[in-house]
Amino acid sequence: MARDYGRSSAFRPGLLAGKAALVTGGGTGIGLAIARELLTLGCDVSIVSRSAVKLDAALDALRRDGACVGRARAQPCNVRSEADVRGAVAGALEAFGRLDFLVNNGGGQFISPAADLSANGFRAVVETNLLGTFLACREAFTQYMREHGGAIVNITMVNRNGFPRMAHSGAARAGVLNLARSLATEWASSGVRINCVAPGIVYTPSGFENYGAMGEPFLNAVTPAVPCKRLGTAEEVASAVVWLLSEGAAYVTGQELSVDGGLSLVGYPFPLADTGEHSAFPVYGDAAVLPPAARL
Ligand SMILES: CCC/C=C/C(=O)SCCNC(=O)CCNC(=O)[C@H](O)C(C)(C)COP(=O)([O-])OP(=O)([O-])OC[C@H]1O[C@@H](n2cnc3c(N)ncnc32)[C@H](O)[C@@H]1OP(=O)([O-])[O-]
Ligand SMILES: NC(=O)C1=CN([C@@H]2O[C@H](COP(=O)(O)OP(=O)(O)OC[C@H]3O[C@@H](n4cnc5c(N)ncnc54)[C@H](OP(=O)(O)O)[C@@H]3O)[C@@H](O)[C@H]2O)C=CC1
């Protein structure tokens, strides 16, 4: 039985007082947990995403939450739209007068075999996760961080060995990590750090609703493969994000931190059976020496 650490912050109260952050996808799931943690530590937070309904509900919950010390505001923004992103950064600056932190969390994908992906479906996922992250980084930098410094965290995924059935997203997030490495170097002279957090399988009702009937069987199949033998929580991701934003990570830039209960060590988020048994690979050499079970 897992011990429950509860919901209070692992960080010292007031750690981020006087700072301001922008969190994309901050109305639900992991983004909402990040916003809550930042607010609890005294940071002012702008949350942005496409749906005004989700943002309003989140803002209401955050403002009612007695632990949230910082000021919260929301602004609709589709990160695929250059104009929206420019406006979101400008709105955050107008409201709080500064932008110390950017968290590129808004994103997602759908489950599909690569062969069935349309160009538009692939483009939608790449635009959401990679282009959206680039636009938000560029606007945060040009509108504020170039002159004042800052810290950026991008949410990626555990994709070191690819991400079958989510090839579009695996590719986009690999691009996000490489982008972070480039920007970490280009923007170091402005005092800007940029890192990534790669969640393993983190249960968020909002996120897994997205997969409909495929969600639950996936979760049931993948949980035993995680060395920690459980799914992660949004708060566990938020905690890593806050550390990377904080002064405690002052010497860390261009890195990716997996928050995955060890999943990346065993390397394969989808159960192997998902790709089906087959004997499609011809053998070079003496097939007869292979044990029968290794031959298929
Ligand atoms: C699992 C563990 C790891 C990860 C966990 C998480 O991330 S949890 C977090 C999970 N949370 C999220 O993922 C939340 C955010 N995710 C999203 O909003 C969507 O997944 C999105 C990013 C695709 C944008 O969608 P949108 O509707 O705004 O996009 P659009 O209108 O621009 O359409 C462009 C193309 O995409 C196609 N298409 C779209 N859906 C599907 C589908 N289910 N099936 C097939 N195709 C689909 C659509 O048909 C069209 O192609 P067509 O027909 O013209 O050739
Ligand atoms: N949960 C998990 O196991 C994992 C999650 N991740 C990633 O973590 C992030 C958060 O996921 P999670 O909280 O679980 O799921 P959610 O579906 O709750 O979060 C996705 C958020 O992104 C926002 N969003 C989606 N598209 C856009 C867009 N075009 N412009 C602006 N905002 C957008 C959504 O809000 P709205 O609909 O209002 O736009 C929503 O708030 C996502 O990037 C996800 O892919 C990565 C690995 C594993």
UniProtKB/TrEMBL annotation:
Record's subunit section: Interacts with PEX5, probably required to target it into peroxisomes.
UniProt main location, coarse: other
Reactions this protein catalyses: (2E)-hexenoyl-CoA + NADPH + H(+) = hexanoyl-CoA + NADP(+); (2E)-decenoyl-CoA + NADPH + H(+) = decanoyl-CoA + NADP(+); a (2E)-enoyl-CoA + NADPH + H(+) = a 2,3-saturated acyl-CoA + NADP(+); (2E)-octenoyl-CoA + NADPH + H(+) = octanoyl-CoA + NADP(+)
Domain of life: Eukaryota
Protein name (database record): Peroxisomal trans-2-enoyl-CoA reductase
Keyword Ribonucleoprotein: no
Alphabetically ordered keywords of this record: Fatty acid biosynthesis, Fatty acid metabolism, Lipid biosynthesis, Lipid metabolism, NADP, Oxidoreductase, Peroxisome, Phosphoprotein
PANTHER family given in the database record: PEROXISOMAL TRANS-2-ENOYL-COA REDUCTASE
Pathway: Lipid metabolism
Localisation per UniProt entry: Peroxisome
Function: Participates in chain elongation of fatty acids. Catalyzes the reduction of trans-2-enoyl-CoAs of varying chain lengths from 6:1 to 16:1, having maximum activity with 10:1 CoA. Has no 2,4-dienoyl-CoA reductase activity.
GO cellular-component term (any): peroxisome
Single Gene Ontology MF annotation: trans-2-enoyl-CoA reductase (NADPH) activity
Enzyme Commission identifier(s): 1.3.1.38
One Pfam family in the UniProt entry: adh_short_C2
